[in-house]
Amino acid sequence: MSFTLSELEHDALVEIFNIGVGQAAAAMSGIVNEAVTMSVPSISFLNRADAAALLGHRGEQAQRICGVSQHYEGAFETEAILMFPEDKSLEIVRLMVGELVPLSELTEMEQEAMSEIGNIILNSCVGTLANIFEQELQGSLPVYHVGTSEDILSASGSAADSVVMMLHIDFILEMHQIHGYVAFILDVSALRDLKEQINLYLSRVMGRN
Amino acid sequence: MELEANRLGLLESVLGAVHLGAIVLDTQGRIVLWNRWMEQYSAMPASDVLCRDFYTLFPEMRSQRIGMAIQQALVSNFPSLLSQTLNKSPFPLHANRSAAARGERLQQAIAVTPVTVAAGAGERHCLIQITDVSIAANREKVLREQAMVLRSQTFSDGLTGVANRRHFDVAIDKEQRRAKRNGGKLSLLMIDIDCFKAYNDHYGHQHGDQCLIQVSAALTAMLHRSTDLLARYGGEEFAIILPDTDAEQAMKMAESLRQRVLALDLEHRYAAEGNGQVTVSVGVATHSPEQPFDVPALIGAADRALYAAKRAGRNRVAAHQA
Q: Is the CB of B81 less than 8 angstroms away from the CB of A112?
C-alpha cells in the first residue's frame, strides 16, 4: 500500500522527532559525561520488504543488524525498533562504555547497555510524540535482537503489509558519526491514527479549523 | 472474601521470597513497598523506609538516570531499563557486612516500570526491580582480561618481548593517520646489528639470541614516551616509531641509541670494523606534513639510510636525504 504525508505533516514529524532525539542525546551525555549529539535528517515511509532491503544488503550477504524494540499502544499502536548494523552497535557501546578490549560480539552486559541506549532513544521519540499529541501511550520494556533486518522487522509478528516509518538517525559521539535507524511498524489503522494526530496538532498550532 | 485475603497474603509472601529487589513508589514518590531482598542487601528494614520520600533517602538519585526513569514511569507511563554497564551500582546494596565495609556494591541491573493500581482509581505507581548481576559482570571481566593477554601475545615478539612486525604494521599505520590529521612530524628509525651473521656463526645461536635480547632491552630503556614504539622488524633488525619528532630530534635519538648499544660492551671479535664490540647502524627518515604521505615510502627511506650507514663503515647513523 502507498502512504503519503503532505510536506507540512512530514516537516512537523521531523521536527517532533528531532526534539525527541535531542532529549535522548542530552540523557546519554549525562551518562557518559561527554557531548553526544543526535539528529533525524529525514523520515520515509516504506513497506516492510523495502525497509528490510534499505538496511539489509551491503555486498552479497545479508548484513547482521542489532535491534532494540519496544511495543507502544494507546493513541496509536506501534512496534518501535532502533536498528544499527552489528559493527556500528559494537562501536556505539564501546564509545559509551569506554572499553579498551572490544570482543567480536556484544557480550551479555553490552547487549543490556545497548538495550538501555535503545530504551532512552525510543522513549524520548515516542514520549515527545505523545506529549505533542496530548495523548498518553503505554510502553513495554526493551527487547534486544540480532539478525537480518527482515528477521528483526518481522519479529513483532506484524503483518507483511504493514508500513514502516523509518527515521534516519545521525549519532555523533567523540568525533565518531554513526548512522542508524528507528523503525515504527504501523498497520493501516495505526497509520490513520497517526495522520489524524498530526493534523490535530497542526490545527492546534496553526489555529486552523 | 477469605480467598481474596489469602491471595493478598500469598502475594506478600511471594514478594518476600523472590530473588530480586522490589521497591514501589506512589505518585508522590513515597516508598510504599520495600521487599525482603531489599532489607537484606541494603541493611535497611522496611519499617525504616516505608512512607518516606524516596529522594530524602537517596538525594543523589534525583539527578541521575534513575531519577529520570522514575519520572518517566510516573509521568509518561514509560518503562526504563538501567544497565549495569552504563550505571555503576546506583543503590547502596552489599553482598554482606564485610563487602559493605569495603564499600563494594552489588552490580545492578534495574528496571523501572509504571504500575497502575486498578482499585485506586488509576493512581499510578512505579515499580523498581533490581537484579544482582555481579556474577555475570565478573565473568565478563575475566573474559576481557584473557582477551587482553591473548592480544598482547599476538602483538609481541616471542624472544625479545618487544612489539612484533604485526604490531609495527598496525602502529605505523595508526601514527601515519594521526600525523596526517594533526600535521605532526613522524620519524622512523631502522636499526640493524652489525655483522650479526658472523656473530651467530662464531658464538652460536644461543648467544645470538642473548645478544638480541640485550640489545632490544638497551634500546627499550632509551624510549621514554609512551607513544614511541620499538619493534623487532626482522631477524636482527629493529624499527622505532617516533611520533611528533622532527629530523634533528630523530638524529639525536639515533645517535644516543648507537652509543647506548656500544656501552653494553658486548664482545664481538668477528666484527668487520670497530674495537671488537657489538655495534648497530641506524637509518633515520622523517616525514614532514607538507609532503604527501605514504607508509612504504617512509620505510623505504629509512631502509636506504640504514644501507648508507652500513656502506659508510657501520656503527654509525645516517639520515635519509630527501
A: yes
Give the HSE-up count for residue A136: Cα atoms under 13 Å, Cβ half-sphere.
10
pLDDT in tens, B158-184: 899 999 998 898 889 888 878 877 788
Question: How high is the pLDDT of residue A209?
Answer: 46
Catalytic residues of B: 236
Lowest mean pLDDT among A96-110, A171-185, B78-92: A96-110
How far is A205 from A156, CA to CA, in rounded Å? Answer: 34
- Domain assignment present for A119: yes
CA angle A25, B89, B142 (to 5 degrees): 100
Domain encompassing residue A146: 7-206
Whether residue A139 and residue B86 make contact (CB cut-off 8 A), yes or no, is no
Average pLDDT over residues B49-57: 95
CB B28 within 8 A of CB B20: no
Contact call for A130 and B76, based on CB within 8 A: yes
* Mutation target among A23, A78, A141 for the B interface, most CBs of B within 10 A: A141
What domains are defined for chain B?
A: 2-139 (3.30.450.20), 155-319 (3.30.70.270)
Q: Which of B64, B66, B75, B78 to mutate to test the interface with A (most CBs of A within 10 A)?
A: B78
Report the CATH number at residue A46. Answer: 3.40.1550.10
Residues 6+ apart with CB under 8 A from B136: A108, A109, B107
pTM of the predicted structure, to 2 decimals: 0.69
**What pLDDT does residue B263 have?**
94
DSSP code for B279: -
Strand order in the sheet with B80-82: B31-34, B21-25, B124-132, B108-116, B80-82
Structural domain tally of chain A? 1
Q: Which of A96, A107, A127 is opposite residue B78, by nearest beta carbon? A: A127
Cα–Cα nearest to B107, from B145, B77, B138, B76: B138
Residue A1 within any structural domain of the chain: no
Asked if the structure places residue A2 within a domain, the reply is no
Which residues in chain A are contacts of B80 at CB distance < 8 A? 116, 119-120, 123
Does A149 reside within a domain?
yes
